[in-house]
Amino acid sequence: MKTTDQTDRTGHVSDHVRDHGPVDHRAALARETARLVEVVRGADLDTAVPGCPGWTLADLVRHTGSVQRWFSVLLRARVQEPPGSRDVDLRLPDRQDGYADWLAESAAVAADAFAATAPDLPMWAWGADQHARFWARRMLFETLLHRSDAERALGLRPAFDRPLAVDGVDEFLVNLPFATPFAPHVSELRGPGRTIRFAAADGDESWLVRLRPDGFGVDTAHPADAPADATVRGTAADLLLLVYGRLPHTAAPFGREGDERLLDHWFAHSSF
Known about the structure:
Elements (H helix, E strand, L loop, with lengths): L2 E2 L12 E2 L6 H16 L16 H21 L21 H17 L17 H21 L8 H14 L18 E7 L5 E7 L2 E4 L11 E5 L1 H8 L11 E4 L1 H10 L3
Helix pairs in contact: 1-3, 1-4, 2-3, 2-4, 5-6
Protein backbone atom coordinates (compact mmCIF):
# COMPACT_ATOMS: atom_id res chain seq x y z
CA MET A 1 0.00 0.00 0.00
CA LYS A 2 1.25 3.47 -0.85
CA THR A 3 1.70 6.08 1.85
CA THR A 4 1.71 9.84 1.98
CA ASP A 5 3.00 12.17 4.67
CA GLN A 6 0.36 13.75 6.89
CA THR A 7 0.89 16.52 9.43
CA ASP A 8 -1.38 16.08 12.42
CA ARG A 9 -3.29 18.76 14.29
CA THR A 10 -0.57 19.08 16.94
CA GLY A 11 1.92 20.24 14.31
CA HIS A 12 3.97 17.03 14.37
CA VAL A 13 4.55 14.94 11.29
CA SER A 14 2.33 11.99 12.04
CA ASP A 15 2.71 8.37 11.05
CA HIS A 16 1.84 7.90 7.41
CA VAL A 17 -1.72 7.79 6.11
CA ARG A 18 -2.06 4.90 3.71
CA ASP A 19 -3.52 5.07 0.25
CA HIS A 20 -7.01 3.61 0.48
CA GLY A 21 -6.32 1.36 -2.50
CA PRO A 22 -8.98 -0.03 -4.82
CA VAL A 23 -11.96 0.17 -2.44
CA ASP A 24 -14.79 2.44 -3.57
CA HIS A 25 -16.07 3.45 -0.13
CA ARG A 26 -19.22 5.12 -1.43
CA ALA A 27 -20.33 2.14 -3.50
CA ALA A 28 -19.34 -0.29 -0.75
CA LEU A 29 -21.43 1.64 1.77
CA ALA A 30 -24.50 1.24 -0.42
CA ARG A 31 -23.87 -2.50 -0.71
CA GLU A 32 -23.21 -2.98 3.01
CA THR A 33 -26.34 -1.05 3.98
CA ALA A 34 -28.41 -3.15 1.57
CA ARG A 35 -26.98 -6.30 3.16
CA LEU A 36 -27.85 -5.04 6.64
CA VAL A 37 -31.37 -4.12 5.50
CA GLU A 38 -31.92 -7.67 4.26
CA VAL A 39 -30.56 -9.13 7.50
CA VAL A 40 -32.93 -7.17 9.72
CA ARG A 41 -36.00 -7.12 7.48
CA GLY A 42 -38.54 -9.43 9.08
CA ALA A 43 -36.25 -10.21 12.05
CA ASP A 44 -37.30 -9.75 15.67
CA LEU A 45 -35.80 -6.35 16.39
CA ASP A 46 -35.95 -7.02 20.12
CA THR A 47 -33.15 -9.58 19.64
CA ALA A 48 -30.11 -8.82 21.79
CA VAL A 49 -26.85 -7.97 19.98
CA PRO A 50 -23.91 -9.60 21.79
CA GLY A 51 -21.38 -7.49 19.88
CA CYS A 52 -22.99 -4.33 21.31
CA PRO A 53 -23.84 -5.13 24.96
CA GLY A 54 -27.17 -3.66 26.02
CA TRP A 55 -28.37 -3.14 22.45
CA THR A 56 -31.15 -4.82 20.54
CA LEU A 57 -31.35 -5.05 16.77
CA ALA A 58 -33.66 -2.03 16.87
CA ASP A 59 -30.95 -0.04 18.68
CA LEU A 60 -28.37 -1.15 16.13
CA VAL A 61 -30.53 -0.11 13.17
CA ARG A 62 -31.33 3.25 14.76
CA HIS A 63 -27.66 3.88 15.45
CA THR A 64 -26.46 2.89 11.98
CA GLY A 65 -29.05 4.96 10.15
CA SER A 66 -28.54 7.91 12.49
CA VAL A 67 -24.78 7.88 11.91
CA GLN A 68 -25.31 7.86 8.15
CA ARG A 69 -27.71 10.80 8.34
CA TRP A 70 -25.51 12.80 10.72
CA PHE A 71 -22.37 12.26 8.65
CA SER A 72 -24.37 13.31 5.59
CA VAL A 73 -25.26 16.60 7.29
CA LEU A 74 -21.56 17.20 7.97
CA LEU A 75 -20.73 16.52 4.32
CA ARG A 76 -23.40 18.88 3.03
CA ALA A 77 -22.26 21.59 5.44
CA ARG A 78 -18.58 21.14 4.45
CA VAL A 79 -17.75 21.47 8.14
CA GLN A 80 -14.38 23.08 8.87
CA GLU A 81 -14.43 22.68 12.65
CA PRO A 82 -15.93 20.25 15.18
CA PRO A 83 -19.73 20.57 15.15
CA GLY A 84 -21.38 21.90 18.28
CA SER A 85 -24.44 19.68 18.04
CA ARG A 86 -25.42 16.21 16.90
CA ASP A 87 -29.06 17.16 16.42
CA VAL A 88 -30.37 15.88 13.08
CA ASP A 89 -33.89 15.34 11.79
CA LEU A 90 -33.75 11.54 11.66
CA ARG A 91 -37.30 11.01 10.36
CA LEU A 92 -37.38 7.78 12.33
CA PRO A 93 -40.63 5.84 11.84
CA ASP A 94 -42.94 5.37 14.80
CA ARG A 95 -43.09 1.61 14.35
CA GLN A 96 -40.19 -0.82 14.24
CA ASP A 97 -41.64 -2.56 11.18
CA GLY A 98 -40.61 0.53 9.25
CA TYR A 99 -36.99 0.45 10.40
CA ALA A 100 -35.63 -1.60 7.49
CA ASP A 101 -37.03 0.81 4.89
CA TRP A 102 -35.81 3.76 6.97
CA LEU A 103 -32.29 2.34 6.99
CA ALA A 104 -32.42 1.93 3.22
CA GLU A 105 -33.50 5.56 2.96
CA SER A 106 -30.55 6.54 5.17
CA ALA A 107 -28.20 5.09 2.56
CA ALA A 108 -29.98 7.13 -0.10
CA VAL A 109 -29.47 10.26 2.02
CA ALA A 110 -25.76 9.44 2.22
CA ALA A 111 -25.55 8.80 -1.53
CA ASP A 112 -27.09 12.23 -2.20
CA ALA A 113 -24.52 13.85 0.11
CA PHE A 114 -21.69 12.01 -1.64
CA ALA A 115 -22.96 13.12 -5.04
CA ALA A 116 -22.83 16.74 -3.91
CA THR A 117 -19.37 16.53 -2.33
CA ALA A 118 -16.01 15.90 -3.99
CA PRO A 119 -14.04 13.23 -2.08
CA ASP A 120 -10.91 15.39 -1.90
CA LEU A 121 -12.73 18.45 -0.56
CA PRO A 122 -10.87 19.73 2.55
CA MET A 123 -13.05 19.26 5.63
CA TRP A 124 -12.76 18.86 9.35
CA ALA A 125 -12.73 15.23 10.41
CA TRP A 126 -11.95 13.68 13.77
CA GLY A 127 -9.44 11.28 12.21
CA ALA A 128 -6.21 11.44 10.24
CA ASP A 129 -7.58 12.41 6.84
CA GLN A 130 -8.96 15.95 6.75
CA HIS A 131 -11.04 15.52 3.59
CA ALA A 132 -14.59 14.56 2.73
CA ARG A 133 -13.45 11.05 1.83
CA PHE A 134 -12.79 10.42 5.54
CA TRP A 135 -16.54 10.41 6.20
CA ALA A 136 -17.36 7.95 3.43
CA ARG A 137 -14.68 5.55 4.66
CA ARG A 138 -15.74 5.90 8.30
CA MET A 139 -19.43 5.52 7.44
CA LEU A 140 -18.67 2.37 5.46
CA PHE A 141 -16.88 0.57 8.27
CA GLU A 142 -19.40 1.66 10.88
CA THR A 143 -22.07 0.04 8.71
CA LEU A 144 -20.06 -3.05 7.78
CA LEU A 145 -19.24 -3.81 11.39
CA HIS A 146 -22.85 -3.46 12.50
CA ARG A 147 -24.01 -5.63 9.60
CA SER A 148 -21.78 -8.35 11.02
CA ASP A 149 -23.09 -7.64 14.54
CA ALA A 150 -26.66 -8.16 13.30
CA GLU A 151 -25.73 -11.38 11.51
CA ARG A 152 -24.01 -12.80 14.56
CA ALA A 153 -26.98 -11.82 16.74
CA LEU A 154 -29.21 -13.89 14.46
CA GLY A 155 -26.89 -16.91 14.44
CA LEU A 156 -25.46 -16.17 10.99
CA ARG A 157 -21.78 -16.27 10.08
CA PRO A 158 -20.64 -12.89 8.74
CA ALA A 159 -18.50 -12.78 5.62
CA PHE A 160 -16.35 -9.90 4.41
CA ASP A 161 -14.94 -9.08 1.01
CA ARG A 162 -11.21 -9.39 1.65
CA PRO A 163 -10.19 -5.96 0.26
CA LEU A 164 -12.78 -4.39 2.56
CA ALA A 165 -11.45 -6.29 5.57
CA VAL A 166 -7.88 -5.17 4.84
CA ASP A 167 -8.98 -1.57 4.37
CA GLY A 168 -11.07 -1.76 7.54
CA VAL A 169 -8.13 -2.86 9.68
CA ASP A 170 -6.08 -0.02 8.21
CA GLU A 171 -8.85 2.53 8.76
CA PHE A 172 -9.20 1.53 12.41
CA LEU A 173 -5.49 1.59 13.24
CA VAL A 174 -4.76 4.83 11.38
CA ASN A 175 -7.63 6.70 13.06
CA LEU A 176 -7.40 5.21 16.56
CA PRO A 177 -4.79 7.74 17.81
CA PHE A 178 -7.30 10.53 17.14
CA ALA A 179 -10.16 8.90 19.08
CA THR A 180 -9.20 10.17 22.55
CA PRO A 181 -11.88 12.94 22.67
CA PHE A 182 -14.59 10.26 22.83
CA ALA A 183 -12.49 7.27 23.96
CA PRO A 184 -10.14 8.70 26.64
CA HIS A 185 -8.70 5.28 27.54
CA VAL A 186 -6.88 5.31 24.18
CA SER A 187 -4.50 7.87 25.70
CA GLU A 188 -3.05 5.03 27.82
CA LEU A 189 -1.55 3.49 24.67
CA ARG A 190 1.96 4.87 24.98
CA GLY A 191 5.37 3.52 25.79
CA PRO A 192 9.12 3.65 25.09
CA GLY A 193 9.16 2.40 21.49
CA ARG A 194 7.28 -0.87 22.05
CA THR A 195 5.81 -2.36 18.89
CA ILE A 196 2.86 -4.58 17.97
CA ARG A 197 2.42 -6.15 14.55
CA PHE A 198 -0.94 -7.12 13.09
CA ALA A 199 -0.25 -9.55 10.24
CA ALA A 200 -2.69 -10.98 7.70
CA ALA A 201 -2.29 -14.75 7.48
CA ASP A 202 -4.12 -14.85 4.13
CA GLY A 203 -1.97 -12.21 2.42
CA ASP A 204 1.13 -10.07 2.78
CA GLU A 205 -0.43 -7.08 4.56
CA SER A 206 0.80 -6.12 8.00
CA TRP A 207 0.63 -3.10 10.29
CA LEU A 208 3.37 -2.22 12.74
CA VAL A 209 2.03 -0.08 15.59
CA ARG A 210 4.69 1.77 17.55
CA LEU A 211 3.98 3.04 21.07
CA ARG A 212 5.88 6.23 21.88
CA PRO A 213 6.12 8.24 25.10
CA ASP A 214 3.70 10.78 23.57
CA GLY A 215 1.27 8.31 21.96
CA PHE A 216 1.28 5.74 19.17
CA GLY A 217 0.71 5.24 15.48
CA VAL A 218 1.12 2.95 12.50
CA ASP A 219 4.78 2.95 11.49
CA THR A 220 5.13 2.38 7.72
CA ALA A 221 8.82 3.25 7.58
CA HIS A 222 9.89 -0.28 8.50
CA PRO A 223 9.75 -3.39 6.26
CA ALA A 224 7.06 -6.02 6.69
CA ASP A 225 9.55 -8.44 8.24
CA ALA A 226 10.86 -5.97 10.84
CA PRO A 227 10.79 -7.53 14.32
CA ALA A 228 8.04 -6.56 16.76
CA ASP A 229 7.70 -6.96 20.50
CA ALA A 230 4.37 -8.72 19.98
CA THR A 231 2.58 -10.06 16.92
CA VAL A 232 -1.00 -11.13 16.25
CA ARG A 233 -1.62 -13.09 13.05
CA GLY A 234 -4.97 -13.97 11.52
CA THR A 235 -7.01 -13.64 8.36
CA ALA A 236 -7.91 -10.10 7.34
CA ALA A 237 -11.55 -10.77 8.25
CA ASP A 238 -10.64 -12.05 11.71
CA LEU A 239 -8.23 -9.14 12.27
CA LEU A 240 -11.07 -6.76 11.47
CA LEU A 241 -13.25 -8.37 14.13
CA LEU A 242 -10.27 -8.40 16.48
CA VAL A 243 -9.40 -4.71 16.32
CA TYR A 244 -13.07 -3.83 16.84
CA GLY A 245 -13.27 -6.05 19.92
CA ARG A 246 -15.63 -8.63 18.42
CA LEU A 247 -13.06 -11.40 18.89
CA PRO A 248 -10.54 -11.66 21.75
CA HIS A 249 -6.87 -11.88 20.83
CA THR A 250 -6.75 -15.18 22.71
CA ALA A 251 -9.33 -16.76 20.38
CA ALA A 252 -8.44 -19.83 18.32
CA PRO A 253 -8.18 -18.05 14.93
CA PHE A 254 -5.14 -16.04 16.02
CA GLY A 255 -1.49 -16.86 16.25
CA ARG A 256 0.37 -14.81 18.87
CA GLU A 257 4.04 -14.22 19.44
CA GLY A 258 5.99 -12.13 21.90
CA ASP A 259 4.92 -10.01 24.84
CA GLU A 260 1.47 -11.12 26.03
CA ARG A 261 1.29 -8.33 28.62
CA LEU A 262 1.78 -5.78 25.85
CA LEU A 263 -1.09 -7.35 23.90
CA ASP A 264 -3.29 -7.39 27.00
CA HIS A 265 -2.56 -3.69 27.53
CA TRP A 266 -3.33 -2.83 23.91
CA PHE A 267 -6.67 -4.59 23.78
CA ALA A 268 -7.73 -3.20 27.16
CA HIS A 269 -7.38 0.36 25.83
CA SER A 270 -7.94 0.28 22.06
CA SER A 271 -11.72 0.30 21.67
CA PHE A 272 -13.84 3.20 20.42
